């Protein structure tokens, strides 16, 4: 993915998150704080998709209290209402990233085809391999600090084999892998 398209995708994620807060989350205030290199650990949801014939992932990471706030807002509850069970928070956060990813798809549809996958709830931070790159933007949703995440393949990176060894293919014939 070129840097221009990567930047467009990160912008689209930010715009989609703003749209989500204004509509589905009941008009919570939204602010884009800026690029983030310290997205650290947290809870949230990721969604895998395919864009321009390469896999990418998008995500939203917040702390566990932030997940409660966003889940309650999605369900039309007040922040002071009783905490939701973990399963409901997980479902809500998966719906949040699903909506954000749908907004990304709509915003970049003129530049590239995007196919959405299934969302998953996570705890922790992304640990990309040597072939991947993570870019993030910090946003404020009400009182919640969050990071929208874009995980992509590095340009001109050779694929990794199942054994984790980088493989290179010469010419038109593919190298055979031998793994235990």
Task: Provide an overview of this structure.
This protein is α+β, with helices and mostly antiparallel strands and 180 residues long. Helices cover 30% and strands 31% of the residues. It is built from three helices and six strands; from the N terminus they run H-E-E-E-H-H-E-E-E. It has helices at 3-22, 64-74, 86-108; strands at residues 30-36, 43-51, 54-62, 114-123, 132-141, 144-153. Helix 1 (3-22) crosses helix 3. It starts with a helix and ends in a 27-residue tail after the last strand.
Write the layout of secondary structure elements.
Elements: H1 3-22, E1 30-36, E2 43-51, E3 54-62, H2 64-74, H3 86-108, E4 114-123, E5 132-141, E6 144-153
Antiparallel strand pairs: 1-5, 2-3, 2-4, 3-6, 5-6
Strand/helix succession: HEEEHHEEE
Q: Biggest β-sheet, characterized?
A: 6 strands, antiparallel
Count of DSSP-assigned helices? 3
- Spans of 5+ residues with little confidence (pLDDT < 50)? 160-180
* Oligomeric category: single chain
Gyration radius, to the nearest Å? 18 Å
Let me know the average pLDDT: 84
Number of strands: 6
What structural class do helix, strand and pairing data support? alpha+beta
Helix content: 25-40%
**Strand order across the largest sheet:** 1-5-6-3-2-4
Inertia-based shape: globular
Distance between the termini: 32 Å
Strand content: 25-35%
Write a concise synopsis of the structure shown.
With 180 residues, this protein is α+β, with helices and mostly antiparallel strands. It has helices spanning 3-22, 64-74, 86-108, and strands at 30-36, 43-51, 54-62, 114-123, 132-141, 144-153. The relative contact order is 0.23.
